[in-house]
Amino acid sequence: MAEIGKGVTAGKLAINVQKRLTRAQEKVLQKLGKADETRDAVFEEMVANFNKQMAEGTKLQKDLKAYVTAVKTLHDASRRLQDCLADMYEPDWFGKEEMDALAEDTDTLWLDYHQNITDKSLNCMDTYLTHFPEIKARIAKRDRKMVDFDSARHHFASLQKGKKKDEAKIAKAEEDLGRAQKIFEELNVELQDELPSLWDSRVGVYVNTFQSLAGHQEKFHREMSKLSQNLNDIMTKLEEQRQLNDEANHSESASSAPKSAVTNGSDGELPPGFLYKVKAIHEYAATDGDELELNTGDVVLVLAFDNPEEQDDGWLMGLKESHWVQNKDISAKGVFPENFTQKV
Fold first, then answer.
1. Short-list 193, 201, 189, 216, CA closest to 71
2. What is the C-alpha to C-alpha distance for residues 33 and 40, in angstroms, rounded to an integer?
3. Which of 137, 191, 176, 190 is nearest to 22 (CA)?
4. Distances from the Cα of 169 to the Cα of 22, 114, 145, 147, angstroms
5. With CB atoms counted within 10 Å of each terminal CB, which end of the chain scores lower, N or C?
6. Residue 147 contacts by C-beta under 8 Å, 6 or more apart in sequence?
7. Rounded distance, CA 342 to CA 278, Å?
């Protein structure tokens, strides 16, 4: 027997062509009402649910992919923004090292978020949808075998009703009918078992997908909120540093003027670099030679640091007002914790 193609013989090709022709003829007869059609309302509802489920899953997969792509785009924009800030941030500004670390932590957080929603949500939908093409092909095959069954049934019935009965043809038709019915019913039973289970599985898939997405969103935004607060704190301290520098420069300019001009009402002269006054609200015992010991109620004249880079976060330089009034000497100045005092 001559070969038409790999694995396909001329005989097989002829059989397939004849099957398609017989099915087409059967379909035409059914549409014209000249042949009855096997119908199963319950199964048709299952197929309608299957098509609805596949369409919804495909749309969800598409929208999830769009969301993951948007996260990637926003991550890239965030990285560029952080890099821009890092490039502009001068080495002597407050919190330079903290700023660099914050940019790195932000980038890592975006990377983790993108990877997690890809692995736990998008991949879950991808796996879920892999089942549909195979089942869809089996539904189509079941429909074809149902037409074959109807055609064999009608052929067998027509031979039985014929005036001249050919027992050999009738026996052959009956055998073909039994074979067609068996193939159809096997496919039909399998799908009637699988389709309801697949339909019910959608709830669990949607729960897992969105629960995982919500969990990673909550974690991402919680951690990002902390980083945003850190950035806000750094910017606040940077502004305070700028204001202190401006006040220090102003005080230096004022100290270079005639002493009679450097007064504060009834307080008389004030020490060089004076910024403002604070009052101790807690006692503080000095632990180092450059620290200022405080008693509750002490009034301290806050001074600008000679070198702003030496100022530690949360510490001020000052001199007790009582010492200055008596001695007009700033050698007794020292550093003290800001949170032990309040402005007056």
1. 216
2. 18
3. 176
4. 17, 67, 21, 20
5. N
6. 23, 26, 27
7. 5
Q: Which residues pair with 336 in a beta bridge?
A: 316
pLDDT digits (tens, 9 = 90+) for 183-240: 999 999 999 999 999 999 999 999 999 999 999 999 999 999 999 999 999 999 999 9
Amino acid at 80: R
How far apart, in whole angstroms, are the C-alpha atoms of residue 308 and residue 244?
9
Give me the pLDDT at residue 252, please.
64
Element (H, E) at 152: helix 131-161
For residue 50, the number of C-alpha atoms closer than 13 Å in the C-beta half-sphere is 24
Of 226, 238, 219, 227, nearest to 104 by C-alpha is 227
Residue-wise pLDDT tens digits, 138-148: 999 999 998 88
Q: How many whole angstroms from its chain centre is CA 179?
A: 54
Tokens read off for 35: 């042949």
Residue of 308, 326, 317 lying closest to 275 (CA atoms): 317
The count of residues in the chain is 344
Cα-atom radius of gyration of the chain, to the nearest Å?
43
- Determine phi and psi for 332, rounding to 5 degrees: -90, 10
Can you read off the two tokens belonging to residue 238? 């940077």
The single-letter DSSP state of residue 291 is B
Would the pLDDT of 260 be above 50? no
* Integer Cα distance of 44 and 50 in angstroms: 10
